[in-house]
Specification:
Blueprint (H helix, E strand, L loop, with lengths): L12 H8 L5 E7 L8 E7 L17 H14 L1 E7 L1 H7 L1 H14 L7 E5 L11 E4 L7 H24 L5 H4 L5 H10 L10 H7 L3
Length: about 210
């Protein structure tokens, strides 16, 4: 019987390659919240200590809430972390891709040190990023620094959406994080559009500008 090969887990190889090239501080960067109909897009930048990497880092989507929260505490204790957002207004003004890149650049700028090299999750480097950098497709499953960034960004944004859900009950943001779930779509039709909805996103736009 053929057993399935084990799923690859993120490691420190991208960071190690940069260290060998002379970099001292390597930041992993990821964003969360491109797809939701409401709320900001959130990015995190994390610089891990090569001698003290938390165990069990992985793409935040592959971890349970409990595991993410346990890891978040360890990441904040052992690494340099910066989190930043781009607002709904910015998303509507410059588009979600540019806004997610803006949040990434802000997160990097918020670090205590300027990274010598940046590992970006995805296939594009933000155009305003002037530092040495590389884009890694599915980077949150390949680089532990990006995994760490994905965990802290997701937890931060999820908590923010829980807070917004208190102010605007009925949309289910505490569970759907602003994504277009069935209950969210039905609440949009029933309760209307809030200031936290992304007006440039089709389902929201269509409700606002119905004939």
């Amino acid at each position: 019987m053929n057993s399935k090969p084990p799923k690859p887990v993120p490691d420190f190889s991208y960071e190690m390659a940069a260290l060998k090239r002379g970099a001292k501080f390597i930041a992993g960067v990821d964003e969360v919240g491109r797809g939701p109909l409401a709320g900001p897009v959130t990015a995190a930048a994390v610089i891990l200590d090569p001698n003290d990497i938390p165990e069990g880092l992985n793409d935040s989507k592959l971890l349970t809430t409990k595991r993410r929260e346990a890891l978040e505490a360890v990441i904040f204790a052992k690494a340099q972390v910066s989190i930043a957002h781009a607002s709904v207004e910015e998303i509507d003004e410059i588009n979600i891709l540019r806004a997610s890149h803006l949040a990434m650049v802000r997160a990097i700028a918020g670090l205590n040190v300027v990274p010598d090299h940046v590992l970006i999750d995805g296939n594009m480097i933000p155009r305003d990023l002037t530092l040495s950098s590389e884009a890694i497709i599915k980077g949150d499953r390949k680089s532990v620094s990006i995994s760490a960034a994905s965990i802290v960004a997701k937890i931060c944004r999820d908590r923010l959406m829980v807070d917004l859900a208190q102010q605007h009950p009925g949309y289910g943001w505490e569970t759907n994080a602003g994504y277009g779930s069935k209950s969210h779509m039905s609440a949009l039709l029933k309760l209307g559009v809030t200031p936290h909805h992304r007006r440039s996103f089709k389902p929201v736009h269509n409700i606002l500008y119905q004939d």
